[in-house]
Amino acid sequence: MTQPKSYTLDAPGAVLHYDVREAGAAAGPALLMAGSPLTASGFASLAEHFGDRTVITYDPRGAGRSERVEAAGEVTPEQHADDLHRVIAALGGGPVDVFGSSGGAVNALALVARHPGEVRTLVAHEPPTAALLPDREPALAALVDIRQTYERDGFGPGMAKFIAFTSIHGEVPAEFAEQPPPDPAAFGLPSDDDGTRDDPLLGQNLLTCTGFVPDVAALRTGPTRIVVGVGAQTEGELAHRGGLAVANLLGTAPVTFPGHHGGFLGPDSPMPGDPAGFAATLRRALAGTG
After folding, report:
1. Is there a contact between 153 and 182 (Cβ–Cβ < 8 Å)?
2. DSSP annotation of 24
3. Bridge partners of residue 231, in order along the sequence
4. How far is it, in rounded angstroms, from Cα 105 to Cα 83?
5. What is the pLDDT of residues 58-68, one digit of tens each?
6. pLDDT value for 290
7. Residues 248-286: pLDDT tens digits?
8. Domain 5-129+212-287, what fold?
9. Residue 144 DSSP label
10. In the chain, what are the domain boundaries?
């Protein structure tokens, strides 16, 4: 695989940055890897295992190099989906294969529904679709409280609550949003407020991503083959449960991937995964052989 070449793309309200790793002799359609708010750098190790494909990674709007030029606030999965559509169009159009993880999986589900025919196979890994869970009310209430904490007190307190929330195994307790906030220092986070409110997770994608409800009819009747992935080490966590919920709506069996929520992350990550093992599972999922 060649070194990635970086490109920019003008979009309404943002300038998108994406990278293309050209394959010498491609054995399949291009593979687009998408996260949110995870940027292109998070997929570097995974991309190395797909040297037989052209691999595209990108920074979603408001994250990394893809600066927003409109007023701050939440970005919707539909907006992210249209950005993915623009990247695919800039590459010459589909169909491509897509691997979407976390918020990227949510955005890719919106892409497939809004732009049918552009994606051959979508592997949606651990979409945190809290709105689909039986305990959606306390889960969404907790997420609103996290957002309000961030807006009121800043990044450290907001992220501390988010970490506590994502550490829950099983249903979210009804009283979770009313619990005292954890100490940010316990997670190595700053307690002081720097005044910024543009964090890609807490300030731009938290509520619209977790509150997203897929267009099941469009997904079921469209031409895209959809595989839902969950982590081997994340059973009971919200994103794992969200993946199971999406698979259930689609009437499919989920595929278990190695590791945690970021099981594809490389050795330089604060939470490294198993990129080689993850890539092997992803390759089978894309091929329909496992």
Report:
1. no
2. S
3. 257
4. 14
5. 999 999 999 99
6. 67
7. 999 999 999 999 999 999 999 889 999 999 999 999 999
8. Rossmann fold (3.40.50)
9. H
10. 5-129+212-287, 136-207
Please tell me the distance from the alpha carbon of residue 20 to that of residue 48, in angstroms, as a whole number: 12
Q: Which amino acid would we find at residue 60?
A: P
Give the tokens for residue 81.
């989906």
The separation between CA 179 and the C-alpha centre of its own chain, rounded to angstroms, equals: 28
Q: What is the dihedral of CA 71, 72, 74, 80, to 10 degrees?
A: 70
% residues pLDDT > 90 (the chain) = 90
d(CA 210, CA 126): 12
Using a CB cutoff of 8 Å and minimum separation of 24, what contacts does 68-75 make?
68/13, 68/14, 69/13, 69/14, 69/15, 70/12, 70/13, 70/14, 72/197, 72/198, 72/203, 72/204, 73/204, 74/204, 74/205, 74/206, 74/207, 74/208, 75/204, 75/205, 75/208
pLDDT at 16 > cutoff 80 = yes
Encoded tokens for 77: 């999965």
Measure the CA–CA gap between 221 and 115, rounded to whole angstroms. Answer: 13
**CB 40, CB 59: distance < 8 Å:** yes
DSSP β-bridge partners for residue 227 = 123
Residue range 202-217: mean pLDDT, rounded = 97
Assess contact for 269 and 261: CB atoms under 8 A.
Answer: no
pLDDT of residue 69: 87
Sheet with strand 255-257: strands edge to edge: 5-11, 14-21, 55-59, 31-34, 96-101, 119-125, 225-231, 255-257
